[in-house]
Design a protein that fits this description.
By secondary structure, this protein is α/β, with parallel strands linked by helices. The chain has 2 domains: 8-149 and 247-324, Rossmann fold (3-Layer(aba) Sandwich); 150-245, no CATH class. 35% of the residues lie in helices and 17% in strands. The chain has helices spanning 95-108, 121-132, 150-157, 166-173, 184-192, 197-213, 228-243, 253-256, 280-286, 307-324, and strands at residues 20-29, 32-40, 45-50, 71-76, 114-119, 137-143, 266-271, 292-297. It has an 8-stranded mixed beta sheet, with helices on both faces. Helix 1 (95-108) crosses helix 2 (121-132) and helix 6 (197-213) crosses helix 7. The longest helix is centred in the C-terminal third of the chain and has 18 residues, at 307-324. It starts with 19 loop residues before the first strand and ends with a helix.
């Protein structure tokens, strides 16, 4: 899950735009090639940025949370989305594949340890990666925590969030016959993978539109249709992962395995009024974790670009930079 569209009021907190010093398509196997870029200081503190979705892709705006004189910033489009190919493909596309891709990037760039920065699904993937490779994450910076649990899916796709946004929920739910509305993820799956591109695009835009409408606290109106290519990748990949419960071994896996990463210093930034990833997940993740610091950001929702969330993330990364140097 993640919608990170820009807001002008947040720009003042960000670093000026920077261009990559390295861009490449990396062969990761299984017929997949992923887009990877590096920017900032080639000798700086390595930080890998994990975008949301699954299927959201990275964007130039994501570079701007890091002082480019201090950080060596690594961004990539996860399998099937953004500039990675094949586009919108769910074949050989699981959490385990993404974790292996992150390790391949680290090894390819000769990085020993790095800061892992991720929001929403990117926070999920950050935690899964750290639990798989606890010796490679020097620090975790998580935003809008999503633990990939059934309770979270039920909240967002089972009508919980829809009680706060009934008109937006109706736009999403009314595309599905009433007899199928008890399982919206399954209903949309049948249409997003129908093989009919026009039908897939219609439902992909509705899927993306539902999430986009709830991303920022101050959005209170219908949002425009996402571009067809983006929406189709975003919706298909999210639905694929949610249908398969994130490819985890069991519900609640991330919290159950927290002990494997409790030695890693962790900063968690959570919007108090996040309707996509409710704050209870961030609270439960941080509770009793001595090396974790949870910051509940008042008057903020889910989006990376929420002004107060942007400000807090930049503050954390600046402080980390000072401590490392």
């Amino acid at each position: 899950m993640d919608r990170s569209s820009g807001q002008n009021s947040a720009v003042a907190h960000l670093y000026p735009p920077i261009d990559p010093f390295d861009q490449r398509m990396l062969e990761v196997g299984d017929g997949h090639r992923i887009y990877v870029e590096q920017c900032g200081n080639p000798q700086g503190i390595p930080v890998v940025v994990l975008h949301g979705g699954p299927g959201g892709g990275c964007s130039p705006a994501m570079r701007r949370y890091f002082d480019p004189t201090i950080y060596r910033i690594v961004l990539f489009d996860q399998r099937g989305c953004g500039r990675s190919r094949p586009h919108a493909s769910v074949e050989h596309n699981t959490s385990q594949h993404l974790i292996r891709d992150i390790e391949l990037i680290r090894e390819t760039f000769g990085i020993d340890k790095w800061v892992v920065f991720g929001g929403s699904w990117g926070a999920t993937l950050s935690l899964l990666y750290a639990q798989s490779h606890p010796d490679r994450a020097a620090h975790l910076v998580l935003r809008g925590v999503f633990l990939m649990t059934q309770a979270e899916l039920d909240w967002f796709y089972g009508g919980g969030a829809g009680q706060f946004f009934p008109e937006q929920w109706a736009l999403f739910a009314d595309l599905v016959p009433l007899e199928e509305q008890d399982d919206m993820i399954a209903a949309y799956n049948r249409r997003l993978f129908s093989g009919d591109i026009a039908l897939e695009t219609l439902y992909a835009r509705a899927w993306a539109g539902w999430e986009n409408a709830l991303a920022a606290l101050r959005v209170n109106h219908p949002v425009g249709n996402a571009p067809a290519e983006y929406a189709r990748a975003f919706a298909r990949l999210e639905n694929h992962y949610f249908t398969h419960k994130g490819f985890l071994d069991h519900d609640g896996q991330i919290l159950a395995r927290r002990s494997t990463i409790e030695h890693i210093p962790t900063d968690i930034v959570q919007g108090r009024y996040d309707m996509i990833c409710p704050p209870i997940s961030a609270y439960n993740l941080a509770k009793g974790w001595q090396n974790a610091r949870l910051r509940m950001v008042a008057a903020s929702g889910h989006a990376l670009s929420e002004p107060s969330i942007t400000e807090e993330l930049v503050r954390i990364m600046n402080l980390l930079g000072e401590n490392y140097t």
